[in-house]
Amino acid sequence: MTVRVRIAPSPTGLLHIGNLRSALFNWLFARHEGGTFIFRIDDTDTARSRPEYEADARESLEWLGLDWDEGIGVGGPHGTYRQSDRLGRYLEVAEELLTDQRAYWCFCTSEELEARRERARAKGGSSGYDGTCRLLDPVDAAATKAAGEPAALRLAIPRPGETTFVDLVRGEMHFDHDAVDDFVLLRSDGSPTYHLASTVDDVDYQITHVARGEDLLSSTPKHILLTMALGAPVATYAHLPLLFGPDGRKLSKRHGDVSVRAYRDQGILPEAMFNYLSLLGWSYEPDVTVFTKEQAVDRFTLTDVSKNPAVFDPVKLEWMNGVYIRELESSEFVRRSVSTVEAAIGRTLTTDERRQFEQLAPEVQERVKSLGEVAPMVRFLYEVDYDEESWRKVLGHERAAEVLGAAAAVLTDVAVWEHDSIEQTLRGMLDHLEIGARRGLQPIRVAVTGSSISPPLFESLAVLGKEESLRRLHDVCERL
To answer: Most CB atoms closer than 10 Å: which of 96, 106, 301, 370?
Structure first.
């Protein structure tokens, strides 16, 4: 059997980190097994689906390095791989189920359904559908529907009964049919529900394994029963642990950014995100946290996925991202981060300006945890914008003007403008003024870079150049 798995996001919002983790685990499983990874779009919610959200999902998978064998953009034997283009197929299946009396028309209004649920809850019973319309004669129901009465189509769940299956993550699962109501396949407006569309797609695309979030576990008996009603082989299921925030609650906007785009924009490297997401519910080895994509593919199996919730911690992700940044070749670091610098100053760097960035890049690379931190650290090379707090705390000191004036005087006489000569000159000045390095160098740092947080001072002065460094020192002296 050739393994066939899928990822099927709904384009109703930006791709969630949890969806990307599910896509990653499906991709790892497919690549480990030599199978097929399919990317389809579940866009039956036409009112909320947007092309830009579909594009975001596609870009996010590509960014992480997840290639797919069939689906959006690459094609395959199943058309466009968009549910919105398969509505006729879902209606065809619904008609077959109705004809075989595996499904029936339900004429209950939403008000009637809610009233029954309230009564059932008050008595401590099940709040699911009570099966009222299941007792209707099929011929009479068809005539009522043909007369224009609004109706939803429901699957007739076998009763009594039980659905059992072996989940690759959670083990043997049992669902008594008393807890599975006759769920809706077609809404009263004729549109298919998620249960119908997703299951029919899985059957038609010959999906062998469904690896998805644990929040869909309660839907699995419905999908299995519908698959059996269609006379198709039942897929193997693996329900992945949910992602929680550091506070132990389900990951949501209360924890900050939860979209993949936010982390892409922040400057997280795809290699770091790949590595970090792989560890959320799975382990390469107990004491190994950093590994390559190839190593993950070689080791990954769904049966090794934990059923315990996994914690998505942005702090740990940043730490891992810093590890990957420091492992980049200097030229590669420049290539990946130069666009963030250009975006910050609103223009393309000139040849000389890029050379300045390349000179300072090794110092920056050792200190940042994301590419988003690069531009604020090097922007001073091209324009200086003084931080109010740094100005007040550092340049507001009583001897700041004295230090800057002395620094400008001694640096004017530096013949060879490079790190060692700059450092020697400034430290000699501090000794002469009898001022410690911390109090003496910080005013120079703020005057030249605009902030008390910047790359190492002597390297910054060397790269900025003698003329511009002296100009800024004199300018701040005058302002003080």
So the answer is: 106
Q: Which of 38, 90, 386 has the alpha carbon at shortest distance from 211? A: 38
User: Pick from 229, 317, 220, 328: which is nearest to 276 by CA?
Assistant: 317
- Provide CB contacts within 8 A for 398, sequence distance 6+: none
Q: What are the φ and ψ backbone dihedral angles of 67, each rounded to 5 degrees?
A: -90, 150
Give bridge partners of residue 237 from the DSSP assignment: 210
What domains appear along the chain, each with residue ranges and CATH number?
A: 1-72+241-327 (3.40.50.620), 86-240 (3.40.50.620), 330-479 (1.10.10.350)
Give the separation between CA 329 and CA 317, rounded to whole angstroms: 21
Residue 293 Ramachandran class (φ > 0 left, ψ -120 to 50 alpha, else beta): alpha
What pTM value is reported for the model?
0.92
CB 477 within 8 A of CB 402: no
For residue 121 the two structure tokens come to 């809850």
Distance in angstroms (rounded) separating the CA atoms of residues 14 and 56: 6
Write down the H helix ranges in 123-259.
Answer: 138-146, 194-204, 220-229
Q: Are 105 and 133 in contact (CB under 8 A)?
A: yes
pLDDT of 154-178, one tens digit each?
999 999 999 999 999 999 999 999 9
Please state the separation of Cα 117 from the chain's center in Å.
37
3-state secondary structure of 159: coil
Find, among 64, 55, 50, 54, the residue nearest to 20 by Cα.
64
Total Cβ atoms within 10 A of residue 349: 18
- Cβ–Cβ < 8 Å for 130, 120: yes
8-state DSSP, 164? E
Residues marked as catalytic: 253
Residues 76-114: tens digit of each pLDDT: 999 999 999 999 999 999 999 999 999 999 999 988 888
**Nearest CA among 25, 30, 65, 27 for reference residue 281:** 25
